[in-house]
User: Fold these one by one.
Assistant:
Number 1:
Amino acid sequence: MSILLLDQNTINKIAAGEVVERPASVIKELVENAIDAKADAITIEVKEGGLKFIRITDNGFGIHKEDVKAAFLRHSTSKIKNEEDLTSIMSLGFRGEALASIASVGRVELITKQEAEPVGIRYVIEGGVEKVLEEVGCPIGTTFIVKDLFYNTPARRKFMKTAGTELGYISDLIHKMALGHPEVSFKFINDGKIKLQTTGKNKLKDCIFSVYGMEVAKNLIEINWSFEGMRIEGFIGKPHLNRGNRTYENYFLNGRYIKSKVIEKAIEDGYKSKLMLHQYPFVTFHLHVDGKDVDVNVHPTKMEVRFMEEAKVFQLVYKGIESALNREALIPQVSLEKDKKETPMVYEPIPEPFEEKRKVIEQNNRVMPLFIHDAPPIDLKIETFSEEKQEENYIEKLEKKPVDEPLETPIETPIDTPKRTYKGDQVAMSVEAFRGSSAIRSHKVVGQLFDTYWIVELENEYYMVDQHAAHEKVLYERMVKKLRDKVEFAQRLLEPVVVNLSLQEMSRYEIHERLFIDLGFEVEPFGEEALIIRSVPFVFGKTLDANQFLLILDGLADSFIEDKYDILLDDIASMACKAAVKGNDRLSKGEYIQLIDDLLTLENPFHCPHGRPTIIAMTKYELEKKFKRIQG
Ligand SMILES: Nc1ncnc2c1ncn2[C@@H]1O[C@H](COP(=O)(O)OP(=O)(O)OP(=O)(O)O)[C@@H](O)[C@H]1O
Ligand SMILES: [Mg+2]
């Protein structure tokens, strides 16, 4: 068989496989191009899951008529000029292959005009073959229409799932794009119906509200942190917003949605003491990192990136999240009444892609978008999330919402009312309210319920303290402190423990040997693949099993974590206190008074080391309302 050089069209089709996997990938590429063209309004329309029809309209700066053909050539781009530019990319595209790929597997029509040109250009290219190039009258900006995707690659077409599944991928993608670019007004129309609309007012919280709804938008904590010239900003969910997988962890690097193990780990470590195992938080934040400190040229879809200094990125995210969470002391407050008033919704008009930017937003009427001949009349007023009460045009739409939503923190009411459950809500409490020496002086332990929950009265609030969680928390904090201060140091084991290790584990131990010694371990090699442990940090008492040691060693597996000592210390303390605490123990008066006093003086008394709340708060006001002593 002789070796042949493939023709350009075949090369394009092969390469298209990398960039254009499914309709959502076409949309990703075209929307990224629109953003790179500085559009601030982008409309995306699809039919039949994008397989039949995709139209993307933007109000960006358009393509010059002389460049239209070249834009569809492989490796042609206006975004970088040379190799050097590759090291500081701030645009979303730079490979110059998206349009070539899309045009090789679909029927593409492009209409575009730049501001300085009197007329625009219409260009049709199907399966990589040019069909039409003509002048047309059109507004400034660009419209791409892609029909019959994969019509000439039946093998790929066969792999496509149903329109419904493809639509799922598309919505997910557009949600991420909208969250990544709050400065752009996105409109997504599927089969003639508006699915998403964002304001483009550069308010991330509004975007989160448009995508995830009120429940999420109401339970956010702002995050804003800088470290070594990098910045993180956005919102993270209060811990109770957690999910069972990572779908709600959204983060953007210079406007690009990415996935990163370092960031994943930093997020989850940041929430470590607040969430249980296999619970993942809600986060949506932006990272601003200088283009030269990151390599985005790792994969054709550009979702993977390589940071020059992973440890610093880890610190930025970890510390940012930790400080945001600590700022808000999270005591779940239990309301005995359902909230009557919710945050008002604000309805505001938003612009269309071809409107003159931002200014010509008409106050009251409807505007039919250009090029969307078959879409129904569209009401341009959309919802935004607002915390301030707006005088004129808000509608208390939420009153119409069913109030009997599922309950997150079911609790039982006092004995004399029938059993009911109530909706728990996390409120930010002043850290000082239930902490510190003045709290110790003025609180009163009223009694205990079900051998588990202490009722504590403090000014106009009363608190329920879970004895088991409180005990664990106090013990844990005490252990961390002692370990850190090296108050009590090593304990000799009654019987030395032999731990068999893999070679990899062995070398991990060797790397971190110093930390183990510092914490009170006395360990010797025991042949090639085993260690013998003679002493352990005092917190283990006189026993330690091999599995515990392995778990501690596993915690050190990630190469990018700088603060290994803290992690080790954390693991040891939480492991030891788990072993030490038992539930439902009856405490003597002296013991429980001491326990609650100890809890009150902790830095963060509100969650046990495994993320469960230790304290829930209720107000006297709620109680008085319940007994109709006051009208509310
Ligand atoms: N909506 C648009 N508005 C203005 N110019 C555009 C638009 N879409 C594409 N272009 C121009 O066409 C060129 C080619 O686009 P293409 O997406 O193929 O490559 P790229 O964006 O440069 O790189 P990548 O392949 O990484 O996306 C761009 O560099 C840009 O100059
Ligand atoms: Mg591109």
Number 2:
Amino acid sequence: MEYKMLFSPMKIGNCEIKNRIVMSPMLMGFGQFDGCVTEQLMDYYEERAKGGTGLIITEITRINDVHGSAAFAQLGASHDYQIAGLHEFAERIHKYGAKLFVQLHHPGRQNVGLAIGTVPVCIAMTRMFKSFPKTLFKIAPKIAPFMSKHNLALSSVSASKCEPSYFAGGRVRALSHREVKKVIRQFIDGAVRCQKAGIDGVELHGTHGYLIQQFLSPNTNHRTDEYGGSFENRLRFLREIVDGIRKECGDYPIIVRLTLDEFYSKIGKPEKGYNFETGLKYAKAIADMGVDAIDVSSAAYDTFNYWLEPTSFECGWRKYLAAAVKKEVKIPVLAANLIRTPEQAERQLEEGDQDFVSLGRPLIADPHWAEKAQSGHENEIKRCICCLYCIQSMQDNAYHGDHGYCAVNPTVGREKEFDNLPKDGNGRVVVVVGAGVAGLTCAEMLGRRGFKAIVLEKDNQIGGQIQLADKPPKKEKLGWSFEDMRTNAEKFGAEIHLNTEATPEVIASYNPYAVVVATGACAVKPRSIEGVNLENVYTTTQILSGEVKLEN
Ligand SMILES: Cc1cc2nc3c(=O)[nH]c(=O)nc-3n(C[C@H](O)[C@H](O)[C@H](O)COP(=O)(O)O)c2cc1C
Ligand code: SF4
């Protein structure tokens, strides 16, 4: 299929983007305490630029180190010393004809304990003692839960003193009037640094419940000064940031990422926050401020599933939000609205839902999504299955000094290594036992190295345990994982033999150079649970495979 709209250029302000594919901002934890770029971070983004993405928007990038730092391993635009690294980063993205915007961010009340107030100390300590990060990451996993249990963390800040957000917890204090002015200044300074570094534009993070949204939302903004109260006053914080950037950076492109509906109605609290009607009013007012594009999103931490969907949500379910904004404004509209395939992306562009398709997790799962679509190899795209392992692992690993991972893409964070796989297989045969996700991925990697993979599967189908996991209602996306892995394994020459038990004789008949055992896992019945051996107790495998039918 030809994707005419997807691969047509379009401008955001004065910046021409070669196609309509945008990498949505995503923190994966490849940074370091001082907010400077790292090789690993640049490799990760560069792979997505190489894979044909038109515009890359970075992860949350801090503008304030003290209460505005949301993670130890995030980018910063809070100091001049970060400019040189950002410049190198931009050059590496530009090599592939892609553009790079930085997402400027302050978490406000959605900040977790250990990150508040500690980053400047960590920077200073790392400068004095090279081994400091190692020591910190040994003790941090123990300190963090202790601090949150005993409420020892410094307060996070917000538009007003308000209840903590679900998930972040802690105590929240109001920013003073002077602090509000200072944070506005810090956003402007962040944009100035990005411009100096040759970054193509900035995105202001006004969604997912972070500080800018906390000013917009009556749920968190109860101020009585000029930054609270009326619709216009709640918008003032953002307006002053936009005006300041315009004044200092001229026509430098600015995108605002906006929550169109906080979706409190979805969790049975319609009286809280702001809804679609107000969100649309905000979108119009923001377009009138003279920004260059609006990136439509939704929700906040309290309503987490409605901005970062688990696997049960239907593709495109919230495209109506972007479509409504597009009808009201004359500037480009971007949106990450659960797009998984190029067909869906093209359709949403054709139907006028949005001007740019933002892909978050799809580009973690497959950095070459765009290039595969453009070259007619869309069937080789490894689709994101919305399992949320990326965000979970990123958060779990944050205090261990490690980054996020992907359930379907083992190359995340190791892009250089996998780009330079040795081609030393010389056609030698390797037998892989098991056609589950491990066996199929192994077969692809062997093929990439020039080995001939023979996959033996005793079942009559591929997929192993995942082939059961996708059986319950609304879990179909999980099945995409092994379908796509099969396509890619076969592309690299793997032979898959179903209904074939890997007996010593069968294996020996291939005269293999090596054998990989990838037989996966079995459901267990923990003996410690009383009654586990009763006749009416079954494993998930027995039920999902249909061996046991549940009745009554
Ligand atoms: C691991 C992870 C980190 C994220 N970090 C950010 C972020 O830094 N800034 C942001 O605006 N959104 C962030 N998001 C949300 C994505 O930009 C995107 O809106 C969301 O994943 C839904 O789009 P998708 O279904 O295409 O992934 C993150 C999402 C994930 C999975
Ligand atoms: S497949 Fe899972 S881990 Fe990978 S990007 Fe999608 S949601 Fe994240």
